Amino acid sequence: MARLILIKHCPPQIDPAVISHRWVLSEDGRACCGWLADAMRREGAMRLYASMEPKALETAALVAVRLGLDLCPRADLQENDRTGLGFISGEDLEERMQHFFASPDLLVIGNETADAARIRFLGAIRAIQHADPAETIAVVTHGTVISLLAGMADKVGAYDFWKTLGLPSYVVLDGRTLQPLGPVRNYDE
User: 41, 112, 140, 142: which has the fewest Cβ within 10 Å?
Assistant: First the structure.
């Protein structure tokens, strides 16, 4: 099976009055897409999939245009379901995320446990891989679900992995084992 590239979207325009799964990219976020497109060209991305959340879909669209790739939006690639959760920032968010990853079978953030989000996301990834078994696939998605998959496979733990992900960032995984093939690559490094 080919390599899998999981990409955390570019920086959104944060608006505390709007639920996070509706945020769009900021001006800086749109500017980062050039770096991401160059990185995906170097990594040999052949197919580009994306979460249908606006910040991920917009990131993927701008990268796809630069690379001349088709964009395939897919269900079940979204962040964990945070319906009903208001805006959280800074230390409060970090504390909540640490508890979310440490208690994967409990509802900690929103309406989906970490276990449920991981199972949903893994199912979507495996369906994509089945459809494109020989491709190097890139998926623009979100930090929490990336961490639930790659962080657990890497044995560093999902929370510690989550803390390494910048906006944007990506990690290349072995498509079969889902083990990271190198470090997380962040825009600001």
Answer: 41
